[in-house]
Amino acid sequence: MNGDFNADLLIAVFCIPFSYWQVLIFDDQRWVFGSAMCSLLSFLQGIAVFLSSWTLVVISFDRWMAIMFVLSPSMRLTRKRAVYLVLATWAFSITMALPLFLVAQITTTGGIKRCDEDWTAVEAFIPGVRTHIPNLMHFFWILLLLSEPFLTEKCMV
Predict the structure, then answer these.
(1) pLDDT value of position 148
(2) Are 105 and 116 in contact (CB under 8 A)?
(3) Which of 14, 46, 89, 150 is the Cys-Cys partner for 97 at CB 3.0 to 4.6 Å?
(4) Which residues, 6+ apart, have CB-to-CB distance to 50 below 8 Å?
C-alpha cells in the first residue's frame, strides 16, 4: 500500500466518524467518548492530516525531481530513498501531532462536555509554542526534502 492511501485510510477511520458524530448527531458539538479518547483521537487526527498533506508534498517533490533531473540517474527515486521518505514522513507527522495528545482535554461549558485544546499550560513553559515551533518544523521538513537525494546517496549506499 502506498503512503497516501494509508493517510487517507487514517482520515476515514479516525476523522470522519467522530467528526460526523460530534457535529451532525449532536449539533452542540458535545463530546461523549471520554477523556482518553479525546486525547487519543486528537493525536490520531493530527497524524492523519499531517501524513496526508505531507505525503502529497513528497509525491509532488518526487515528480518535480523527475522532471527537472530527467537525465540524471543519481537523482531518481530509488527503493531506499522511497523507504527513507515514507519513514521520514511518518516520523514528522507523529512529531508534529504529539502536542495534540498533551493539550486535548475535556472542557465543560454550560453543562456540555467538549473535547478542546488547552495550550495555556504549554505556553507558560514555551512561549510561542503554537506558532514558532511548527514553523521551524515545516522549514526543517522542506530542507530535509531538498537535501534528500544527497543524504540518501551518501547514507544509504
Answers:
(1) 62
(2) yes
(3) 46
(4) 92, 93, 96, 97
Owning domain of residue 143: 3-155
Report whether 105 contacts 118 (CB < 8 A).
yes
Element (H, E) at 27: none
Q: Number of helices (H) and strands (E) in the chain: give both, helices first.
A: 6, 2
| Selection from 49, 21, 53, 54 nearest residue 37 by Cα | 21
- Domain CATH for 36: 1.20.1070.10
pLDDT digits (tens, 9 = 90+) for 36-90: 988 998 898 888 888 888 888 888 888 888 888 887 777 778 888 888 888 888 8
Within 10 Å of residue 100's Cβ, how many Cβ atoms?
Answer: 18
Q: What is the reported pLDDT for 53?
A: 85
Cβ(116)–Cβ(103) below 8 Å: no
- Tally the C-alpha atoms within 13 A of residue 104's C-alpha that lie toward its C-beta: 21
pLDDT in tens, 103-134: 888 889 888 888 888 877 777 666 766 666 66
Q: How many domains does the chain have?
A: 1
Does residue 101 register a pLDDT over 50? Answer: yes
